[in-house]
Write a structure and sequence with these properties.
alpha/beta; elongated; 203 residues; 5-stranded parallel β-sheet
């Protein structure tokens, strides 16, 4: 799994990179908000660790735009700001967690792992890799819908047929996967949302 660290202090950025790499994660680091936002929007990351006091685009501005464009990507704030209003504002803008500096590395690693586990559940582990084998569940979802063109298929059925487990009413796995498919397919994606019923592949 890959982590993007957006932190302007080189010492902290390097320290975090070494710590997460030692835990087996792939890590990229950038020093300003504009670079961080660009990388987060285009890169294949599972978690973003974001400072708020950044040169260029501020952390809050980057968070706002990132949540608007890629709401499924978890963002953990790591900041010297420790006041309640800024914490609440960060959560309002889409942050999934907030760790204040100075911080415990063990705590930060634990919180990051929690968010990464949640992200894998939230996106339904849409790409599963085991050795040289790769299973893309998003493609399986599209294949299933196209095999039932014109038919409204419920979320429950999609979870059962594509993921192979019973429906959890709290899960947004299917919705996240549909958003990813629509981004891949572009504005003419033939997938319709049928309110309170499910999805349908248009003929």
């Amino acid at each position: 799994m890959r982590i993007l660290i957006v932190e302007d202090e080189a010492r902290i950025r390097a320290f975090l990179a070494r710590a997460f790499e030692a835990e087996g994660f792939g890590v990229d680091g950038v020093a300003d908000g504009e670079q961080g936002l660009a990388r987060a929007l285009t890169g294949n990351y599972d978690l973003v660790i974001l400072d708020l006091l950044l040169p260029g685009c501020s952390g809050l501005d980057a968070l706002r735009e990132l949540h608007r464009e890629r709401s499924e990507l978890p963002v953990l704030i790591l900041s010297a700001r420790n006041d309640l209003p800024i914490k609440l504002r960060s959560f309002e803008l889409g942050a999934v967690d907030y760790v204040a500096k100075p911080f415990s590395l063990d705590e930060l690693l634990a919180r990051a792992r929690v968010q990464l586990r949640r992200a894998r559940v939230a996106d339904g582990s849409t790409v599963i890799r085991v050795g040289s084998l790769v299973l893309d569940l998003a493609r399986r979802l599209l294949h299933f819908l196209l095999g039932h063109v014109g038919e409204v298929v419920s979320r429950e059925r999609l979870l059962s047929e594509v993921w192979g487990y019973d429906f959890d009413p709290r899960s947004n796995v299917v919705d996240v996967c549909i958003r990813r498919l629509r981004r891949r397919l572009g504005p003419d994606a033939p997938i319709e949302t049928v309110r309170n019923a499910g999805y349908r592949a248009a003929a």
